[in-house]
Amino acid sequence: MTSKSCPILRPITQQLVFHLFNSQGKANHHHFCSNTIHKSYWSRNRHCSHLYHGCLTPFGTRSLSTYKKNLQYSSKVQKYDRGPQSSEDTQTDFGTLDILANTPAPSTSIDACLWDGFHLNNGVKITGGMGVLLIGGKAFSWQPWIARKDNQKKLLNEKRQWEVEDETWGIFEVSWPRPDLLILGLGKEMHLLSPKTSSKIYSLGIRLEIQDTRNAAAQFNLLATERGINNVAAALIPIGWKEDDGV
Predict the structure, then answer these.
(1) What local confidence, expressed as pLDDT, does residue 91 receive?
(2) Can you give the residue ranges of every domain in the chain?
(3) Surface-to-core class of residue 108, CB atoms within 10 Å of its CB (0-12 exposed, 13-18 middle, 19+ buried)
(4) Does domain 105-236 match CATH 3.40.1230.10?
């Protein structure tokens, strides 16, 4: 509604309300709506008549109500006490539904991710800023940055993609059978993998899963228990790794 149409609409609305609530004007309701409004309002405001045609026509006019609803707050939620816990044997023990509950964890599963290393389930501790490579039920200390020709402690290329030399994956070339899945833990944060590194791993017939180190360790523990240590491998970088500084 434009500012020019407001002075015209206000007196017409007042006349309409007064006429609708006047007992002497009930018989002239149809005549008033079809003539007075049509002549005075629609002729002067044809450009916006389509906006109010639905609410000012005789068949669409709404009556004004003076009734005020008594708004109250909803009642408080009732608490239902179910009584003491049942001792019947028919209750479901969800602990028995865990099919891996009685399956022993692999000896190379990760017990703790340290700032500068890892603790394994078999008691082995890898510290000193070294990563860990888990394959075929064996654990190896892993330092992929050593393979760089410039001797810099870097794992990211100029595009901020995680990239290492092809010699880093030499152990997978001499291992048989090769694992179906390799879980990469890239430190505290996750990064994109460079096409060079991903192509090298795929050429060995190994699928990839890329995560941060904490989630990668948890996923390796689960999948190694479920599928077996020969089907899942992991290569993890310490969570305290910093580019150019190491751990």
Answers:
(1) 66
(2) 6-56, 105-236
(3) buried
(4) yes
